[in-house]
């Protein structure tokens, strides 16, 4: 599966080159919509509002929790708290969850990714980069 084939999956974790205009750029590609970045690659994320962030919509992250130390959740233009059931489920698997604005999540993700840390990102797409 690959992004160009319309599958919504790029098989490598990559730095985020840009965000805004309703999507993200990475690995010389553009993606419209929200995004999950995991050690197994970049995935389209069918979530458009913080209220849609649930254990179910984070299933891919939970499945790979053993390979993740920190999950940054970009909750859009503003910080929105992550439900305690999500925090608890991930904490039980050793994953720290940080909810921040999408811009902050992308910037922090890029730093930790460059340091080769066990990082994951679940970020809501935003129209304006901040």
From TrEMBL:
- Gene3D superfamilies, alphabetized: MTH938-like
Q: Which domain of life is it from?
A: Bacteria
Tell me which CDD domains the record gives. Answer: Mth938-like (cd00248)
Q: Which InterPro entries match?
A: MTH938-like_sf, NDUFAF3/AAMDC
Its protein name is Uncharacterized protein
Give the organism the record lists. Pelagibacterium lacus
List the top taxonomic levels of the source: Bacteria, Pseudomonadati, Pseudomonadota, Alphaproteobacteria, Hyphomicrobiales
